[in-house]
Specification:
Blueprint: E1 4-11, E2 16-25, E3 28-38, H1 45-63, E4 67-71, H2 79-98, E5 103-106, H3 108-116, H4 123-133, H5 145-162, H6 173-179, H7 181-185
Parallel strand pairs: 1-4, 4-5
Antiparallel strand pairs: 1-2, 2-3
Helix pairs in contact: 1-2, 3-5, 4-5
Length: about 190
């Protein structure tokens, strides 16, 4: 019997919050849905936080995920922006905790590395790799990259939790390739 698992990815934001839902059958992830909640018209920061909570609970209730993966805030120079982003992330976490979901956080660099092999990849490169890996048709790709960022968090979580247990440790993709050169040539 193949076990099914649903992963909800969230890219928190007070103006636009991205979400992506993956279904994993056995060892194969597939796209369920992705999109955004646009709160740019909401002028009150606290009402935006309320909408993030309600929207996240609604997503959880609709898709019944087993786990939630969040993109952790990156450290910027604007303290006020960081504070608002941290609040948005905290409210999305609270919604997951309210529905008793296990939550994992991933730094943007780690997500980009997991998806593209390059921690400094652009959002467009991440979206392109997602469309290739998950076989998403171009017309299904969203216009906003917040949705693909959220889907990337979910896929990063899949990779992190499905990685084969290995005795070998690698410091980078180059290190992996160098240590497995014999397998590549076969």
């Amino acid at each position: 019997m193949i076990k099914e698992r649903i992963i909800l990815g969230i890219d928190p934001g007070t103006n636009v919050m991205g979400y992506g839902v993956l279904r994993v059958l056995g060892n194969k992830p597939e796209l369920v849905t992705m999109g955004v909640f646009d709160m740019r018209k909401v002028k009150d920061h606290y009402l935006s936080l309320q909408q993030i909570f309600a929207s996240t609970v609604e997503l959880i209730d609709r898709h019944c995920p087993d786990e939630m993966a969040l993109e952790a805030p990156f450290f910027g120079k604007n303290v006020q922006s960081m504070l608002k982003l941290g609040r948005a992330q905290g409210v999305a976490m609270a919604a997951g905790l309210y529905r008793e979901l296990p939550i994992s956080e991933y730094a943007p660099l780690k997500i980009k590395m997991a998806i593209t092999g390059n921690g400094k990849a652009s959002k467009e490169q991440v979206a392109d790799m997602l469309s290739r890996f998950l076989k998403i048709a171009p017309e299904q790709m969203p216009k906003t990259l917040d949705a693909t960022d959220a889907l990337a968090a979910a896929l990063c979580h899949f990779f992190a939790t499905n990685a084969p247990k290995s005795e070998k440790k690698y410091s980078s993709w180059k290190d992996f390739a160098a240590k497995n050169q014999h397998k590549i040539k076969e």
